Amino acid sequence: MSASSLHPGYPLVCDQLGVGLPGRPLLATVHARLAPGRFTAILGPNGAGKSTLLSMLSGQRAPRSGSVSLGGRALSAMAVLELARLRAVLPQETAVAFDFTVQEVVEMGRFPHRQLPSRHEVRIAHDAMEATGVAHLATRGVNTLSGGERARAHLARALAQIWEPRPDGATRWLLLDEPTAALDLAHQHQAMALVRRWAVEQGIGVVAVLHDLNLALRYAHDTVLMGAGRCDVGPTGETLDAAAIARVWGVECSEVHASDGTPQFLVAAG
Amino acid sequence: MSGLAVVQPFPRRVPGRLSPRAALALGLALVLWAFVWGSTQGAYAITTAQLWQVLLQAVGAVPAPENAPEYLVFVNIRLPRLLMGVAAGAGLGLAGALMQGLFRNPLADPGLIGVSSGAALAAALTIVLGSYFLPDMPRTLGSWSLVITAFGGGLVVTALIYGLAQADGGTRIGLMLLAGVAVNALALAGLGYLNFISTDEQLRNIQMWLLGSLGGARWSAVALVGSLVAVACGLGLALARPLNAIALGEAQAALLGVPVERTKRLAVLVTALAVGAVTAATGIIGFIGLVAPHWVRLVAGPDHRVVLPCSALLGATLVLAADVVARTIVKPAELPLGVLTAFIGVPLFLAMLRQFRSKV
Amino acid sequence: MPRDTGLIERRHLLRGAAALPLSFALGQVHAAGAARIVSLGGALTEVVYLLGARSQLVGTDTTSLFPEAALKTAKVGYMRQLSAEGLLSLKPDAVVGTTEAGPPVVLDQVRSAGVRVELVKADHTWDEVQRKVATVGRVAGREREATALQADLDAQWAAVQKAVAAATRRPRALFILSHSGSPMVAGTGTAADALIRFAGGTNAITQFAGYRPLTAEAMASAAPEVLLNSTQGIEALGGEAAFWQRPELALTPAFRRKALVAMEASHLLGFGPRLPAAVRELHTRMQAITA
Predict the structure, then answer these.
(1) CA–CA distance from A69 to each of A56, B319, C73, C277 (Å)?
(2) Which of A152, B31, B165, B298 could form a cystine bridge with A132, CB 3.0-4.6 A?
(3) B305 at the A interface (CB within 8 A)?
């Protein structure tokens, strides 16, 4: 039918991408092909360039060198609105001016689609809030919520932005910057399970900056491991082993297995 | 947003807030009430029966006896003044809402981008220097010489502040705020100097211009200001959804596909156009741009699709109502409108601040 | 001056109807003069009373404070900031004022309602007073009384001028308008400057025009022999004793003799029918105090 049928979705490709802030030393060079339908975690210590890499993947920041392309087209060549229809970004923190309610904030996520609204516009916002468990807070002011509730409201907004499949079959991408930072234990796992399900069931490409290794091991298909001047990309199980952890974070840890067989790491004290 | 279905569990009505339709209806009703009330009030006594006659004559339903005094007073003096009040209030209210959305701060005011101080400085320059270069041209509130120079002055100063705020290929709102503070201070100093070198008569003219009044409303001025404000409203209302998204922060808005730089530029332009036109014709009328959007938000929520039009409607209502007081409370003399909006606006603003404090 | 408030009115006029004066609709008409007059300016109001036209006076501005009866007329506000509807609510047939009255837009609106508006140019000469008398006489339909008043005033003026010319000394005088911070003094081109010259003095300030603040040093170098002020100004300072305590006055020749002449403001600077009397009083007192 269309050219896209030749490609299994639109991968997000980093071609010798130099990650670093202007005027500061280069942090890493990333050469990776992030596949749709998979959950990729970006891990590393503070200052390794995780958020910077994510901002380059979203197109917010221009690459220092190299390029990022989506479906064969460089991000810099794509219009802002077109990009917004394809990928949603959840930042670390969002302060919302004025007294917007949760449902109004979630509806803001539908902005890129305002010229071609879906037939189910109203339901999308509602379903997104249900998915992240904030539907009961719909009429509350978003600034009156707790940190975790706020984070989940913004996650609903990001989900609403890419709720429906694209008519041309292009992959939708969900980029998350430390999405679990404010969430309590139960909600951390719920959110991670949710985005992994979206990746697997809907073919969405999910990329998340995480601090928690064990969450990555449980939910992320692939990992981009940054730190100590290098960048390793690969399936999570292979990329994250005790040796890599020791090299990147400088901590000793031992591997255990959860009851369902998922490898987890326990950090040795001291 | 989709239309309302008969039964819909969602979107839920927010408790304590008017729905968008109710808010717009209320705004329209208030403007209409204020307009009708303003039509019946004035220093020149016109009874309701006479007013009705005048209206019939105006639409040609009844033959008009030549030079009926009520007709001339209403059609030549009161009616253009009412229409100027609507245009002025709408322009100021809309501009205030745009500025608060742009700066993401409910305390923002159109004066931040310098259009009022630029207009004031240009007007004072015309009043003082004009006496040397163009001594025969009238230079008081409402004169064309002042309207043109004040409008130009407002645009020039706004352009200056906007230009100073350009950095890294875009407009930095924080820079604009600081540049606005600095340039406003400079304009104020310039005004002070002009006050100093002016003659007694020029000084009175400057002061009267600064205090603001709808007294200079002639049909030609109303047509000019009205059309500029109408254009501003048309352009401004299109900024409603982008401004909503900008409430999340400029970076997030860009990630949502909002053309942030274009939005900022258009907001500044529309504000300069509306406030410049109004200020040029009426002098400085303060607090409307600050108070009207805030009230709308308290009653109907912060969605700019409601706040922008309702701020214009509420602004028009406030100016019309204040002007009725201005021209009747010390009749046959008249209080400057800017004085009244400050006297009424400041206590209301303080009361709102208290409410605002407890809300957050 | 372009007038564009006439939009609606001109259409009526163009329909061919005779342009009947509004006074027909507003009230009875005197054969020659306006039945209802609004006067803008203290001097013009005084002339109205002197011509016996007080019954025709329906409103005055805030500077019309003399005679006392004027205080009881309807006040239309400050003459520079009038309200069109306010003026028209008094249903006048005519409005007289100086060219300082305004704003011009309002006067245009008043004219477009059919009211006769006559303005007298204020240039601080005796001619100004004559023009005021003539204009009021014309507007009020009292030309005979005006001519008589004119002759009377001209005679007074001639007598005063003669008396002033006879004096041998020309005292250096300085008029102080107000005393906030640095004193505001009258330079050339002001009403006070004209009064000083008429009264046979010289203005100690010749370097600038208009009212300007003066520093203490400049005051000392100007070296006025007599200081002029309005009674209202002295009152605002708290009396003559308080006036002389101002530090910048201490170095002036006037200070040694406490040479101050204070007269009521509208009498001194009003440029109305009391001008000959004001000039005579000023001359006499200046001569006396610098003798």
Answers:
(1) 10, 54, 84, 95
(2) A152
(3) no
- The model's pTM: 0.84
Q: Report yes or no: A108 and B245 within 8 Å, Cβ to Cβ.
A: yes
CATH of domain B38-359: 1.10.3470.10
Average pLDDT over chain B, rounded to an integer = 87
Sketch out chain C's domains with CATH numbers: 7-156 (3.40.50.1980), 167-289 (3.40.50.1980)
Closest Cβ–Cβ partner in A83, A108, A121 for B244: A108
Note whether A91 contacts B8, CB cutoff 8 Å. no
Per-residue pLDDT, C164: 93
Whole-complex ipTM:
0.90
One-letter amino acid of B221: A
Q: pLDDT (tens digit, 9 = 90+) per residue, B192-210? A: 999 888 877 788 888 888 8
Contacts B106 to A, Cβ<8 Å: 98
How many CB atoms lie under 10 A from the CB of residue C198?
22
Q: Which residues of B touch A85 (CB under 8 A)?
A: 257
Domains of chain A plus CATH, in order, are 3-267 (3.40.50.300)
Neighbours of B350 (CB within 10 A): 9
CA distance B339 to chain A (A): 30
User: In 3D, which of B272, B283, B275, B290 has the Cα closest to residue B352?
Assistant: B290
- Could you tell me the CA-to-CA distances from A247 to A30, A42, A250, C199 in Å, in that order? 18, 16, 5, 103
Per-residue pLDDT tens digits for B52-105: 888 888 887 777 666 678 888 888 889 999 999 999 999 999 999 999 999 999
Residue C134: beta bridge partners?
Answer: none
- Chain B residues touching residue A122 (CB < 8 angstroms): 1-2, 8, 10-11
Sequence-distant (≥ 6) Cβ neighbours of residue C278 within 8 angstroms: C195, C263, C267, C268, C270
d(CA A195, CA A208): 10
